[in-house]
Amino acid sequence: MKDVYITRISKFLPNNPISNDEMEGILGQINGKPSRAKRVVLRNNGIKQRYYAINSQGKITHSNAELTQEAIAKLFDDSFTENSMELLCCGTSSPDQLLPSHAAMVHGLLANKNMEINSAAGICCAGMSSLKFGFLSVKSGNSNNAVCTGSERSSTRIQANMFNEEAVSLSSLEEQPIVAFKKEFLRWMLSDGAGAMLLENKKNETGISLKIDWMEAYSYAHELETCMYSGGEKLDDGSIKPWTEYNSKQWLEESIFSVKQDVKILEKHIIDKGVESLELVLKKHDKDSADIDYFLPHLSSNFFAEKLKNKIKERGLQIPESSWFTNLDRVGNVGSASIYLMLEELMYSGRLKKGDKIMLSVPESGRFSYAYAHLTVH
């Protein structure tokens, strides 16, 4: 087995940062009315700015594949070119189309050479699944290097025009033309961007590298119902009725393709299962939580930060509070790309020294999955 090092990390955040006051002007107002939920959601999530692949005139500027290609391009120089790549792994929850795969579309934009590709589906954990495929490939000797990505283009799914048909339908039924909170909640949570990592079986000759010591993932779908979903509707028994079982008229009138979240289930389970899985991974690798120098938890909202810290302490784990690192307030919740954006910022911050231990922690509320990685600075 080979050692695997993250030798480069890059990011691409489209257009100018968008403040909280600017959001609704770009995304639009559902039924022409200001959102009732916006202020409450923004107050709780702590996000001050985010990025959209939409300009101030409402024009789409980048596809998800283009965001990803832009991030990957920043990995290249004279010593590692696009033709040096042996494996491309791409994770996202918002591919531009159902078929072909996201990785195939990114590879098409790279237009470099014949190579192996892999697409990881899911929500926030998709970026970690992409990273793990690359990690295992390099570790096993299947490839000498891998480029792994996490990317999202959520903005086009949360524009007002995606919900207006539903509002009109509700009005015709003489109901309040207010889209359910489970759908509108995420309009004020999600943002766009992409991150890319270069994995190699040798460390950098100069500067630091991040050795991937191990990666683990856990799913609780066997015991918990769906919480975050798109392309279907949740029924009273907790099951999901897929979009293929609705007619095309219903797709619009019921906003079937909008991203929805059952916030009651989210709050009930996301922290408890997160700490439970953290305990499992630390025990499996005989890791003392007090030895973590940098803890990078992907947080969808700062609302959960204190709850997570308190639960960790309650369970007797000793992760130093000074080790916590996040950039949620500055880049927003970019789903599968968030962990890439956090690690990129930390790697080039000048703060890391050789021997430092880094723990990556990524939860996903789809049906409650958790992914972890342990890194050592070399």
UniProtKB/TrEMBL annotation:
One of its GO terms (biological process) is secondary metabolite biosynthetic process. It holds the Pfam family ACP_syn_III_C. Keywords: Acyltransferase, Transferase. The keyword Acyltransferase applies. GO terms for molecular function: acyltransferase activity. The keyword Transferase applies. It comes from the Bacteria. Gene3D superfamilies: 3.40.47.10. Residues 282-361 form the Beta-ketoacyl-[acyl-carrier-protein] synthase III C-terminal domain. This is Beta-ketoacyl-[acyl-carrier-protein] synthase III C-terminal domain-containing protein. It comes from Flavivirga eckloniae.
